[in-house]
Amino acid sequence: MLALAALWPGAVLSNQQREMTLSEKVESSDLVLMASIVAVGGGECLGMHRCARLNVASTLKGTAPVDMAVLFDGPIAEENPLCCEVGQTYLFFLKRTKGAYFQSANGPFGIYRVK
Questions:
Q1: In the chain, what are the domain boundaries?
Q2: Residue by residue, what is the 3-state secondary structure of 19-86?
Q3: Which pLDDT band holds residue 41 (cuts at 50, 70, 90)?
Q4: Does the global pTM surpass 0.85?
Q5: What is the pLDDT of residue 72?
Q6: Positive or negative, the Cα torsion across 89, 49, 40, 59?
Q7: Closest Cα partner for 105 from 43, 67, 61?
Q8: Residue 12, class by beta-carbon neighbours within 10 Å (0-12 exposed, 13-18 middle, 19+ buried)?
Q9: Bigger pLDDT: 41 or 29?
Q10: Beta strands 69-72 and 50-61: pairing type?
């Protein structure tokens, strides 16, 4: 099986997501903002994802809805950003999915914890 994988190296990396450039992330995002996590839902909230509620500190692109949620921990591990710890602050590059639900605009490369 390993020998077969060596013949098609692209197949081995097929589930990996390419990190966009900063300008690509901004362009593909509906919202770019700094926010802290105020609550995380315990179970599924939309389509097998968990949800985080935000306290928006500043908006760099777009207009954030008053009551919005960020989807994370979805069914495809390669698309999941390292998010969302209550009380922590993150830089978000987000695209709207449905209603007031948003998700990372670049999978694991669209949400960054700010230390």
A1: 17-114
A2: CCCHHHHHHHCCEEEEEEEEEECCCCCECCEEEEEEEEEEEEECCCCCCCEEEECCCCHHHCCCCCCC
A3: confident
A4: no
A5: 86
A6: positive
A7: 61
A8: exposed
A9: 29
A10: antiparallel
Q: CA triplet 36, 109, 28: central angle to 5 degrees?
A: 90
What single-letter DSSP state applies at residue 110?
S
More confident residue, 95 or 77: 95
**Rounded CA gap, 4 and 20, in Å?**
30
Q: Under CATH, which number does the domain 17-114 receive?
A: 2.40.50.120
Q: What is the pLDDT of residue 4?
A: 47
Residue 103 is inside which H or E element, if any? Answer: strand 101-104
Helix (H, G, I), strand (E, B) or coil at 15: coil
Whole-number Å distance between alpha carbons of 113 and 91: 6
Beta bridge partners of 90: 35, 113
Provide the mean pLDDT of the chain. Answer: 85
